[in-house]
Design a protein that fits this description.
The structure holds two protein chains of two kinds. By secondary structure, chain A is of the alpha+beta class. Chain A is built from three helices and six strands; from the N terminus they run αββαββαββ. In chain A, the strands form two sheets. Chain A has a four-stranded mixed beta sheet, covered by helices on one side. A two-stranded antiparallel ribbon of chain A has the order 1-2. Classes of the chains: A alpha+beta, B mainly alpha. Chains A and B meet through helix 3 and strand 5 of A and helix 4 of B.
Chain lengths: ~160, ~130
């Protein structure tokens, strides 16, 4: 019997019907025999066993790299938040993705007359550079420059990750 | 690839522009100081047979090879960016601060570090002493 709603809600119907029988074939990465893959939406791929195994391995590695990058990014944000929290002269910190890097803008509570905050920023920049693969740029704005924050970050894309109490 | 001498000449030109500009337009003088820094570090890279064609590559090489140069270079770059992108004259450094903090501290330290590195390799460059203002 044709399941109700087949034409309109394929996902729901697919989930509620018995799985289609599938033929599992052992693929060998050293074999160049042709294989035809047919997906559920009837796309058809003709490839070799070698290429299919290689593609699957690539996809698995890509997923795993993506997960690792996501974890590294979360760790980086937490580290920057902790770094800000240890510095009484930091008023806020905003992170903004750009075309080819991530910009971290640290806004100071004062004018950083000694240049200490700028030097600290360079130190964490180098530390992060050696620790992860993200391309990050760091910018310190003095309190009197804080009104220019939006000249550097897109308000829609940016995220404030720290604000002093 | 530009030679050491060409970078030295470019450095000298930017130092002269800085000296001409700083009292009237300290913000643009900060840009000149950044380009002084660019040519000084490229001078060092020229001895490594490296020519960085963009800022991103130069920064990567600096952070990878010459970390002690990074704090001074990064600050000079930041102030140059503020000159160009902060709207409405928000750039706050006075001529005196540009002279003391950017030139007197950051650029002079950067130049001294690079000269000592070159001297350590037996490549003692002609003395570069940015003019004191």
């Amino acid at each position: 019997m044709e399941p109700a709603g087949w034409d309109f809600e394929p996902d729901r119907v697919m989930a509620s019907t018995k799985p289609l029988p599938s033929t599992v074939q052992q693929l060998h990465e050293s074999c160049d025999n042709a294989v035809t893959l047919t997906t559920a939406d009837s796309d058809r791929f003709v490839s070799t066993q070698r290429e299919i195994v290689s593609t699957m391995r690539g996809a698995v590695n890509l997923l795993s790299e993506g997960r690792r990058a996501s974890e590294d990014f979360s760790t980086m944000v937490k580290d920057v938040q902790a770094w800000c929290g240890k510095r009484p002269s930091v008023a806020e910190c905003v992170l903004c993705p750009r075309m080819d890097d991530i910009l971290v803008v640290v806004v100071a509570k004062d004018e950083d007359n000694t240049g200490q905050l700028d030097d600290d920023l360079s130190a964490i920049d180098l530390e992060m550079f050696s620790r992860n693969k993200f391309r990050v740029s760091w910018l310190m704005l003095r309190a009197s420059e804080a009104s220019g924050l939006n000249c550097f970050v897109d308000a829609k894309e940016s995220r404030r990750i720290y604000r002093a109490n | 690839m530009p030679t050491d001498c060409e970078h030295k000449a470019a450095f000298d030109r930017h130092v002269a522009s800085y000296a001409d500009t700083v009292d009237k337009h300290p913000d643009w003088a900060a840009v000149m100081l950044f380009y002084c820094a660019v040519h000084m570090v490229e001078r060092l890279f020229a001895f490594d047979q490296i020519h960085n064609t963009d800022h991103g590559k130069r920064e990567f090489e600096l952070k990878s090879r010459y970390q002690s140069l990074w704090p001074e270079y990064r600050v000079l770059k930041s102030e140059s960016l503020k000159t160009r992108y902060l709207d409405g004259g928000v750039f706050v450094l006075s001529a005196r601060n540009v002279k003391e903090k950017l030139h007197g501290k950051r650029l002079v330290n950067l130049v001294a570090d690079i000269e000592s590195r070159l001297a350590a390799r037996g490549m003692i460059p002609p003395a570069i002493v940015p003019p004191t203002m």
